[in-house]
Amino acid sequence: MKTSVYATKDEMGAAAANAAAEAIRHAIQENALAYIILATGASQFEMLEHLVAAEGIDWRKVVMFHLDEYIGLAPDHPASFRKYLKERFVDKVAPLREVHFVKGNAGDPARECGKLARLIGAHPIDVACVGIGENGHLAFNDPPADFETEEPYLVVELDERCRRQQLDEGWFETFEKVPSRALSMSIRQILKSKQIVVTVPDERKAEAVKNALEGPVTPDCPASILQQHPDCVLFLDEPAAALLVGK
Questions:
Q1: What is the pTM of this model?
Q2: Is 5 exposed, middle or buried (0-12, 13-18, 19+ CB in 10 A)?
Q3: CA-based, 20 to 30 A from 120: which of 31, 92, 195, 239?
Q4: At a CB cut-off of 8 Å and minimum separation 6, what does 2 contact?
């Protein structure tokens, strides 16, 4: 895993966006289309801001898949990840070829997972842009994560630390309003991406970063599985890298 540390969040986001943009341009050049996965949350603010400004990308040749979404949340809810991506990415680039949102308020979550599985199963992903949670989660795969299932999307239970993070980041007014379940792309599906670009800012993520990079590969730190990916690049700001040995 290649790791780079930057003095500011903006520098970190710009570098991560540059890596993602290069992967997208290469995929379009080689295959006429690019298939991408985008994450959400506070960790992706700067990266997405720079990605939408990237030059030389024909967004009409890009297909976007969505990483995860809360179960039961309407798409116009302030914490909805669909709303987040629509406002920060989809509406800011030229019309994408396809957008596959995770519909967390679908009447049958298992059926929604099946629909998404069929869609993503038909397309190899060129680049996945993800973050790491305070509890080490990857997407909404909280510890102990399922490292074995080949199902592309799962119905998952959110642990307390994950839900506390969502509250502390200001997405919800009270802890009780944070949903306890979500639809999430699985670990194995994320790892099928040709390249993974990981963006992680803030001191509150330092422990998770250390465990993911320097600890054992274990479901107790889901992001540690990234150590096994052949083309994973990690972008950190200095606070997030504070606990790394020899940073």
A1: 0.95
A2: middle
A3: 92
A4: 232, 233, 234
- Positive or negative, the CA dihedral 238, 232, 67, 70 is negative
Q: Is residue 206, in this structure, part of any structural domain at all?
A: yes
pLDDT for 94 equals: 80
Q: How far apart are CA 126 and CA 180, in angstroms?
A: 31
Question: What CATH number does residue 166 fall under?
Answer: 3.40.50.1360
99 three-class SS: strand
List the beta bridge partners of residue 154: 184
Domain contains 247: no
Decide if 243 is inside a domain. Answer: no
Cβ count near 160 (within 10 Å) = 12
Residues 101 and 24: their CA atoms lie apart, in Å, by 19
- pLDDT tens digits along 123-139: 899 999 999 999 999 99
pLDDT for residue 195: 98
> Is residue 245 assigned to a domain?
no
Q: Which domain holds residue 186?
A: 2-237
In the chain, the number of structural domains is 1
